[in-house]
Specification:
This protein is α+β, with helices and mostly antiparallel strands and 166 residues long. The protein has helices spanning 43-64, 93-104, 109-116, 120-131, 135-138, 141-165, and strands spanning 11-16, 23-28, 34-39, 69-72, 75-78. It has a three-stranded antiparallel sheet with strand order 1-2-3, with helices on one face. A two-stranded antiparallel ribbon has the order 4-5. The protein is elongated and about 95 Å long.
């Protein structure tokens, strides 16, 4: 079996060897194809091999398009990337603009983090970099709700003025 043929999830089984005395570790892929066998090895070695094979299977899934994706703002993330797929990635200008829009529209830090595929610390850090230190704490969700209600009232007044002008 070639490495490019390995499909997720990779499984590890254990058995006894009749030919070579001791344990044997059996690795199979998502299609139940035998990847290989490791004879008379410690469990930590078998786990290390399993981890490496899982990485190969995840890479194969992204290359072939088999992975389950999460789509947010038109960005597709392979499921193997976890809860924060953009952890540590650079911020692009478009992503910063979307972050500012979401924040000013009143979304919580948690909602923004989920949408951007980043953790909450990264979102707060970027907001503070954009708006200044401690901005998030001073103008958190409660203050943003008040600002939204004021803006709705202003829009209502403008709408009434336009309707009465006719």
């Amino acid at each position: 079996m070639k490495l490019s043929d390995i499909k997720a999830p990779v499984k590890l089984g254990m058995g006894e060897s009749l030919n070579a005395p001791g344990r044997r570790w059996i690795f199979t892929d998502g299609n139940n194809h035998k990847i290989g066998v490791l004879y008379d090895a410690d469990a930590s070695v078998a786990q290390a091999v399993l981890s490496a094979l899982e990485s190969v299977a995840a890479l194969n899934a992204t290359k072939s398009g088999d992975s389950t994706s999460v789509t947010e703002d038109g960005i597709k993330w392979p499921a193997w990337m976890g809860q924060h797929p953009r952890y540590g990635a650079q911020w692009g200008a478009g992503e910063v603009m979307r972050l500012q829009e979401r924040w000013l529209m009143g979304e919580t830090v948690k909602e923004i983090a989920t949408a951007h595929g980043r953790d909450q610390v990264a979102i707060v850090g970027r907001l503070e970099r954009i708006f200044g230190a401690d901005y998030v704490n001073k103008f958190g969700a409660k203050n943003k709700q008040i600002q939204r209600f004021k803006r709705i009232a202003e829009l209502g007044d403008e709408l009434m003025a336009l309707l009465s002008a006719d």
